[in-house]
Design goal:
This protein is mainly alpha-helical. It contains 16 helices and three strands. The chain has a three-stranded antiparallel β-sheet, covered by helices on one side. The longest helix has 25 residues. The protein is globular, with a radius of gyration of 21 Å.
Amino acid sequence: MTRRDNIKHIDFSIIAAVVIIVIIGLLAISSATGARESGDYSTVRMQIIWFIAGIAAMIAVISIDTEFIYRMAPYIYGFCLILLVAVLVIGKVRNGAKSWLGFGGLGIQPSEFAKLGVIIMIAKVMSSYEDGVKTFKQFAVVLFYLAIPLMLILKQPDLGTALVFIAIILGMFIIGGINYKFMLLLIGAGIIAVPLAWKYVLEDYQKARLLIFLDPYSDPTGYGFNVIQSMIAIGSGQITGRGLYKGTQSQYNFVPEQYTDFIFSVIGEELGFVICALVIGLYAYIIFKSIRISSKAKDRFGMLVVIGIVSMLMFQIFENIGMTMGIMPITGIPLPFMSYGGSSLLTNMIAIGLVLNIGMRGVYAKH
């Protein structure tokens, strides 16, 4: 396979969709941080730097043979576990969770990279089960590889990322194939785990976030404040928005965490329904094209990796946008390619690189 063949079979439309989303995100970050008024574009510059790093990482991942990634899966997974353990020992606390590793003035969030480590490792394990997960031993092995990072993440505690891991494994089970009895067992275990997690795992602020989802107006100046202000911001934008840098909720900081978790509320208020619909449409396009790539993957491993990534992105997009509109509980999950954060952006760019790599080689394999 020549280098020219490689380039010819890359789906550049996915890259274009990602770039447009990132640009809209940069505009929203600029507005949310008050960069134009203060002249301080440091947050925007840092996001651009992470995006450039993400592009470089994406290109590097595209150029790696998927068979090499398959062989390296245990090492990638093991490295992610080391980072998750390290963050519990020497990590920094942000927003109530000990989930950051600091390096000088920079910080990374290992749980973001662990998402891909788990996807790759479980794809390797499940790809050896040609008919899907049919025996209890196979089921137990897959859950073992999921359980270790999941427990480390809950220890931080980071409920949002833990939910992403659950979404990933459900997607890979459903598409990859699983005995329905094991799926029922998994659902039953999840139901049993809810009250136990409520009593022994969740912190008080996490419980409050889940309860306030049912009625944010029961505590309008406390835990319900974020979502109420976010809904006001999105609703006030109407069709075309108030204009970039002109949103009252955004510019007067009524919406907390508006350039990270609640960035969609900035877009809704200042750029309106039209741009919100564009963003959602671009996400849908990326998901649709990725699903098509999974169906054309040259092997089962590639198919499962793409399905894991699709499950990860779909859940994060639905949860983040949903929480800004009050239809999902607040979990602190970033909006892919838009929310400020280097670890999230870099992880998602690598994920897109994996999808494009598998798509490129899948198309070539059929010629």
